Structures are given as C-alpha cells and as structure tokens.
Amino acid sequence: MRAMIAAAALSVVAWQAGSALAAEACEAGKTSAKAPCCGVKACKAMGKPCKMKEQFAKKGWICLFNGKDLTGWTPRPDRKGKNCWKAEKGVLVNNLKHGTHGIDLITTRKFENFMLHVEFKVPKKGNSGVYLRGRIEVQVHDSYGQKPAMHTCGSLYSKKIASKVVSKKPGEWQCFNITLKGNTVTVGHNGQKIIDAFDCPAPTGGQLDGRNFGKPGPIMLQGDHTGVAYRNIWIKPLDGKGGEGIVLLRHGDPSLNSILEILTERERRFVTLQRYVPESREGDRRLLLVDGEPIGPVLLRVPAADDIRGNMCAGASVEVVEPTARDLEICAAIAPVLRADGHVFAGIDVLGPWLTEINVTSPTGVEEIQAMAGVDISTRLIEWVEGVV
Which residues lie below 8 Å from residue 257, measured CB to CB, with a gap of 6+? Predict the structure, then answer.
C-alpha cells in the first residue's frame, strides 16, 4: 500500500518537476496542467522553427521529417487524390486548393507504442488530423475560441471530446505531445493535457486497415480536407519490456539476416543493437534513485542457466547486495542530468562497469528490495516527497 501511495505522490512531483510524463517543453506560457511531453526543453518559442534535433536525438527520439524532402513518407495506398504534399523551408506543407480532393500521407515505417511530438499550423477553417498507427485520429482543426466538441482540435474523432480547447489563432504554430500505449491515448496540446489516458475502443474513422486495430501501424497526416503545415515531427518508440525480443547474435551467424527480418518486420520497425557484455552472466545490478541519489541496496538479477536475460519475469534469480564503488560513481555522474530533466524517481541498470539503462517510467525492484533487505524504500520515498510537495 505504501508503495502505491509513493507512486501516487511521485506522480504529483512529476507534474511539478516536468518529468518525462509532464511537459517541460512546448509551453505556450504558464499553464496549470502540463501535458505529457518529450522531456526536453526544446520548443518554448512556438513562433519559429525549433532547433531541437540535438536535444531530441540525445533522448532517443527519431526524426520522422528531415525538413528537406518526403523521405520516409508516402501517399496512403488505399485512397485516390491529388498529392499536394511537399517540403518547403523545413516545413511539411499540404498546398491543397479549395475544391481539390487531396491525399493523406503516411510514414513508411510502422510503430506500436510511442510518444509523438508534432507541430502544426492550420489556416482559417482548416481541418486535418494526426492518425496514430493510421487508425486513431487526433483532430487538427481551426478551433480558436470554440467550445470543446468532437471536431475541435485535440479531440479523438468520433470517440473522445477533448477536455478543453487551447487552440491558437489560425496561422500560428501549435504543438501536440501524444502518448499511445496499447490503445490508451494521452494528448497534450500547447502545453496542456486535454485527453488523459483514454482507452480508445475502436478506429475513429477514415483509418487504414481498421481490422488490425491495436497492431503496429504508420503515422498518418490527413491531407484530403484543407491545406495544413507540419514541422518538427519526432517519435520515441516505447516497445519492449521484460526482456521481450532480446536475441544474442554472434559474428558470422548464418541466420543473422533472417533474425533481423523477423525483429524489424522487414525494416518496418526499429531495433536497438548493443554490444554483448560478458559480465551479464554474473547478473545486472538495479539501483533505485530518488532525486539522483541511490536509495537502499542493489538488486542483483542473475540470468537462469539456460537464458541470457536478467529480467525477473524471464526467470532470473535475485538477491540484494551493496553498491560497488563503480555503481556510486555512475550515480554521481548522472545525478545532475536526472535532476535537470526532472526525473525524481529512476532505476538504473549496471552490467560490469557499464551503465546500460536508465528507467524513468516504471523502475521495478522496490518490492523485492523491501522484502529481501528489510529496507522500507516506500517510506523513505514518501518522506522525500512530503519534504518537497
């Protein structure tokens, strides 16, 4: 119960601190409820293109629009219409004229769970949309001065009305920060959360292959209604957990090409390659950090004899040990970065001398450390939160 209370209290701190689940970017001035966002201080100046490439790339985000051409994009294949999309001075523009039937644009790559950052500009009475996996439409609409409705900007067409309208005037740049996990959608618009963890039950209309709802799909920009402009389109995949899909490859493996085809779905999904660390057989060490400082002992997770994965759900054995000098050195090195990015509670994984992961969304190990070491991490966590809130 205390662990649950700690998690709830941390969520409050997270909103205040501007962590990965609260916006520290894309704010159009001060707001009372900040939206889930990218966790980078990148786009406070909405009046001109943001120079965010370096910041986003460091955070593991992938650029979907290079600002130069339509590489990585293609017209949707199941509809007919005039392709009016082109790149102009770093902006993806749909120069659709009145009376012309345009075409939607989709990414050539598919995504499953992700965070999406996209900036857009609509003309007066403009109407477009950002489709998640090509099946869930987040409305892009000239809604300045309007009351929330199914058609207004940020609503999920035909499924969920946004809690408020925070649209700017037509012709001004605006921003979405969207999280999709499973079929649960959270939408931030111009720095304010307007849809909070809505479980979308079905495609919203105008979708691609609706029969595959819930499966990986492209990002689609609606282009058959009016002209619209997009820029700074970045995505951060959230796929993979609990050791899913981890494969050990060796130099000269004759199955390498086939394995990569399976993992990438023939180059439609991204994968991460990491050099094998032999010390992983001795186990990886999970440290929990609060405000950049380690709290409690280390949870050592040792892979089973017939597996390479140190994940508990994959059968790894666990024990608690004291942190090594190298562990503490790593904690001291990353503490300023965690604090600067607003990550109050984090878990890090260390293999041998190497830092391999910083988990800021769902760091596990609290219950195991408490049960095995008798250290009440939840209480310490609550006491820290109470001292801040």
Answer: none
Q: Cβ contacts of residue 109 below 8 Å, gap of 6+? A: 72, 218, 267, 268, 269, 270
Question: What fold characterizes domain 278-388?
Answer: D-amino Acid Aminotransferase; Chain A, domain 1 (3.30.470)
pLDDT at residue 100 in the model: 86
Which overall architecture, per CATH, does domain 14-237 show? Sandwich (2.60)
In the three-class reduction of DSSP (H, G, I as helix; E, B as strand; rest coil), residue 235 is classed as strand
Going by C-beta distance under 8 Å and a sequence separation of 6 or more, which residues neighbour residue 103?
75, 76, 79, 80, 81, 82, 83, 84, 85, 223, 224
Phi and psi dihedrals of 144, rounded to 5?
Answer: -60, 125
Tell me which residue of 196, 124, 117, 108 sits closest to 156, measured CA to CA. Answer: 196
Of 249, 292, 279, give the one whose Cα is nearest residue 356: 279
**pLDDT tens-digit map of 225-258:** 999 999 999 999 886 666 777 889 888 999 989 9
Write out pLDDT tens, residues 139-149: 999 999 999 99
Tell which residue, 229, 118, 123, 228, has the closest CA to residue 170. 123
* Structure confidence at residue 154 (pLDDT): 98
What is d(CA 315, CA 253) in angstroms, rounded to the nearest whole number? 26
Q: What share of the chain is helix, strand, coil (3-state, %, to 5)?
A: 20, 30, 50
Write down the H helix ranges in the chain: 2-17, 53-58, 256-264, 325-340, 366-373, 377-388
d(CA 35, CA 187): 7
Give the angle 281-358-375 at the CA atoms, nearest 5°: 80
Residues of each domain in the chain carrying CATH 3.30.470.20: 278-388
Structure tokens at 191: 């720095």
With beta carbons less than 8 A apart as the criterion, state whether 102 and 169 touch. no
**Crossing angle for the helix pair 366-373 and 377-388, nearest 10 degrees?**
120
